[in-house]
Amino acid sequence: MEEEISSEFVEGSDDVFRFGDHLELNQFDGLPYSSRYYKLLQERKKLPIWKTRIDFMNALENNQLIVVSGTTKTGKSTQVPQWCAEFCLSAEYHHGVVVCSQIQRQQAVDLALRVADEMDVNIGHEVGYSIPLENCCSNDTILRYCTDDVLMREMMSNPLLEHYGVVVIDQAHERTVSTDLLLGLLREVISQRPELRVVVLSVPPASDRLVAHYGGVPHLRVEAMPSAEVVYSSGGRAESFYAALRLVLEVHRAQEPGDMAVFLASEQEVSCACSILAKEAARLSGTLGELVPLAMCPLHAGICLPITEDQKKSRRVFLSCSQSEDLFWSVDTLNFVIDTGVEKRFVYNPRVRASSEVIRPISRCRAEIRKQLAGTAGKCFCLYPEEMELSPEIPASILEANITSAVLFLKRMEVAGLRHCDFISRPDPEGFMQALEELDYLAALDDDGNLSEIGIIMSEFPLDPQMAKALLASCQFDCVSEVLTIAAMLAAPSCFVEPPVGMVTEAMRCYMKLYHPEGDHFTLINIYNTFKSSQEKPHFTPEEWCQDYFLCCAALQTAEAIRAELTDIMKQLELPMSEPAFGTKANTLNIKRALLAGFFMQIARDVDGSGSYFMLSTKHMAKLHPLSAYGAKTPQLSPPEWLLFHEYTLCDSNCIRTATPISPQLYVLASASASTPSGSECHSSPGSPATLHSTAAALEQFIQMVPQYFFYNLPSSESKEILQHILDREGSANRNGRRKPQPVATDAPKETEGSRSSDRCLLQ
C-alpha cells in the first residue's frame, strides 16, 4: 500500500488531491500524511542504510544490543532512530520511547528537525531535542535527540533510563568521555532491564572494536558508497595551513562546480582561515563567482544554510576541524574536500594538573570519513603522503582528559545502584587516582571513599567539581550572586574576541576599561554586569556594545543562560541565596574565600617579582596569560605576589589563566624571605611582629579554607615554609582544629547566629 500511494504522489502533482482518494494516516499522530512525506520517503529509500531495514528490525526484536556501522552520509543518524520509534510503537510504548545521543548540540538540533520533517510530525511534539540550556520536547515526544552529556545527567536521576525503550548511541567512534561512560554503564543497565534495547552507531574500523568488546553482538554493516578521487601530496606538514588556502583559490579559479570542505588543525586556524579567505575573495574577479568562507565547527554552529536563488554562482568553503565531519550530512553540494591531515588535541597530565596542546596526525578512521564526504564524483585532496602512518582509530578522550568530573559522576552512579562501568578503554590509573584525591580534598568523598552529602550536591551542577565546591561555599559567605556569575562566565566560551590586524592596541584599551583591580574573576563579573546593563540602554544594542569592546555577544548570551540554569538548580536544591553586593570590601573578601574553598589546589607565588609564578602543588613555573588584568599587555597593574588561578595550560608559554590575588600585602614577607638568608640589608622590617601580624591576617583566608592534610602533602618549597610559619603562629586554635571561617559582615542588617545557621549549608 505504501509503495502504491508514494508512487502516485511522486509521479503526479505534489499539491493536488482528488476528492475520495484514500489518505493514509500517520501512525504517530493519526493525521493524514502530507505530499512532502512521500517525496521524502523516496529520498530515504535511496540511502545506503535502507537496504538493511528488515535485517535491523529483526535484530532489534531479538537482541538487546546491536552495532550498526557505516560511513558518513549513509543515513544512519536519521533512519535508525525512526525505525526504533516504529519498534516502540509496535509495543505501544509499554517499555518506553526512543532517545538518540549526539556529541554536538547543533547536530542534535539539525537531526531532530530533519527527522520530524521525514516523519511528517511537529518538532517539539512527536520528535524533539534536548541540548544544554534548551529543551524542545513534550510529554508526547516519542523520539528525542540529545547530547551525550544531557543523557548522562538524566541518568543521575533515572539510572536505569526507565523512560526509554530504545537508547541509540550515535557517533560512538568519536570516543568522547561522555559517550564512553554511557556505553560502559548501559551494559549493566540492560542486564537489569531485559526489555531495553541499545543501538550503537559507529564507522568502520571502530565498530569492530565495539563488537569484540561486547562479545559478538549482532553487527550490521552498511554498504559504503564509492569514495571520491583521492589526490595525495608529497610535501611535508609544515605548511599545510597555507597550502590548503592556496588550493582553495586554485580550485575556485578552475571554476569546477561544487562547494568545498577544508579540514584544519584547530578552531583557531578555522577563524584565521576565514579572515584570510574573506580578504582574498574580495580581490577575485567577479566572473569567477562569489567565494563564501564559512566556519563549521563546534564554536560556530548553525551556519550550514542552503544556497538561495540569488546565490547560485556562489561557492561555499566550509572551514572545519576534528569532530565536525558529521555536520556535513545535509550538504548535498560538496564536491571538494581538502584535508590537512592534522588535528589539535588537549592531553591532560595528572602529575602537573595541566593540559598541553598536541598537534598530531589524524587517525585512519577520520581520514576515511573525510574522503567519503566528497561523494562519488568529487575529489579529496590529502595534504600528506599516501604512505604516512596513521593510527587505526580515534584515540579515546577518557585516556587523555581530566576525568575528575567523570569520576564524580561514576560515584553518583554508585549511589544510584550502578556500581560497575564496563570501560571500552580503562582510564589511566594515575589519572584515576589523581581524580579521587582531588575529590577527597574537596570533601566530596567520605572516609570510606563513597560520595558524601557535599559530593552529591556538587554532582547536581553541570560544572567542574572545583567550581561546584566554590559555588556551594558562596552560600556560606553571602556572595552567591557574584560566584554564580563567575561560574557562568568560566563555563561559557571565552568572551574575548581575537582583534583584527592593526586593532590590538584599541582592543586592549577597551579591555582595560573593564578590568577590575582585584583580579580576573572580578573582571568577569564586571564584564557580565556591564553587558546586562547594555541591554537596558535605548541608544545601542548589546551586539553593538560587544562589537565596540571587542567582546563576543554570543558567548555572553551563553553565560547569561548558564547563570539562569545554575540559579534554577540552586533554588531546586533549596540552597540559600544572597543579594548582590559587588563592589564592597566585605563582598570582595567573601568572593575570594568562596573561590579558595574550591581552588585552594591552584595557588601560585611570584618568587622574584618578575611575574614568574611558582605553583605550590606541582612546583612548576608559569607566566600570566597576556589578557590577564596583570598580564604583559596591561602594564598598569603590577603582578600580585600570591594568586589563585582557574586554569594552567602547558601551551602559550605555560600560561596561568584567570588569576586573582589572594593577598596584596605579601610582597614584604617574600622580600624578607629572599633577602635575609643572603645577608643583604632589609630596609623594611618584614620580621617585625606588626608586619607578621598583618601578613598572617592576609593569609588567614587561605589557611582557613585549605584542608590540613592537603597542606601537609604539598611538596617542600620556600612558599610552603612561609605558609607554615603563619600556621605555627596560629597557635592552639589551629592545633585543636581549623576554625570555621565566617562571612565578613556587609551593610545588610545582622542576623542572629541561630537564624543564620538555620539556612546555611554545611561545608566544612
Distance between the termini: 69 Å
For the largest sheet, list the strands in their spatial order. 4-3-5-2-6-7-1-8
CATH topology name of the largest domain: Rossmann fold
Specify the CATH class of the largest domain. Answer: Alpha Beta
The level of helicity is 40-55%
Shape: globular
Indicate the radius of gyration in whole angstroms: 29 Å
Residue windows where pLDDT falls under 50 for at least 5 positions: 1-20, 300-311, 664-698, 748-764
What is the level-2 CATH architecture name of the largest domain?
Answer: 3-Layer(aba) Sandwich
Tell me what portion of residues adopts beta-strand conformation: 5-15%
Protein name: Putative pre-mRNA-splicing factor ATP-dependent RNA helicase DHX32
Main location: mitochondrion
Family: Belongs to the DEAD box helicase family. DEAH subfamily.
Enzyme class: hydrolase
Short structural description:
With 764 residues, the protein is of the alpha/beta class. The protein folds into 5 domains: 1-46, no CATH class; 49-221, P-loop containing nucleotide triphosphate hydrolases (Rossmann fold, 3-Layer(aba) Sandwich), CATH 3.40.50.300; 229-304 and 312-395, Rossmann fold; 460-600 and 735-764, no CATH class; 601-730, no CATH class.
What descriptors fit this protein?
alpha/beta; 8-stranded mixed beta sheet; 5 domains; globular; Rossmann fold; disordered C terminus; 764 residues
